Known about the structure:
Blueprint: E1 9-10, H1 13-16, E2 33-38, H2 40-57, E3 62-68, H3 72-82, E4 95-106, E5 111-115, H4 119-122, E6 129-137, H5 141-151, E7 157-166, E8 178-183, E9 188-189, E10 205-208, H6 210-215
Parallel strand pairs: 1-8, 3-4, 3-6, 6-7, 7-8
Antiparallel strand pairs: 2-10, 4-5, 9-10
Helix pairs in contact: 2-3
Amino acid sequence: MPMDASKWIDVTTDKNHYSLDHFLIPTHYEKDVSSILIPHGVIMDRVNKLARLIVDEATGPLVVCCILKGGHQYFADLVNAVKKLTNKEGKTVPLSLEFIRVKSYKNDKSEGVTLSISDDECKEFQGKNLLIVEDIIDTGATMVRLLKKLEEFSPKSIKVTSLLIKKTPKSNGYIPDYVGFSIPDEFVVGYALDYNEYFRDLDHICVISDHGKKAYAV
């Protein structure tokens, strides 16, 4: 996967696996994560920096689109940061908010993406600047299909920010415009990233343990 690591923070297993003893973990998850990959405070500082980059490059009002469910915490913190900042002209960036639930599907005939909003609602994107907010890019396949779908409605521009990109050989090479961290090919939870709907209430981004996988398996 071609990556310009100078544009984000490269998190590695050797450098960034923090001991659970050094941070507060909810007692109901103490056995379910093996280590802390990115502490909450580091996440928040990085979100503030990404907000600064987005505001500096914004050319007009933004329609900020949250990809549910995993992106909601990053979306909330990013919007809060963006609306407090001014651009190089000393002006704040007008924001409107949209929420999209994305589900990809694959069968013998086709593969694609289903959106929780209708085509008629998507028509409102015409001529507007969209900022898509995602929690993690894994293979990149779903995001590529989503962007192709959104482009059918002729927005003025589309930019994507993802808090995380995973360093995986399964990647199709897609890289968002604004990236927080690149992470190892591990299953991570916390900061609204889930495992079967659990761990969304965990502040830090952690690596799930074998115990956690078994405890919350469906």
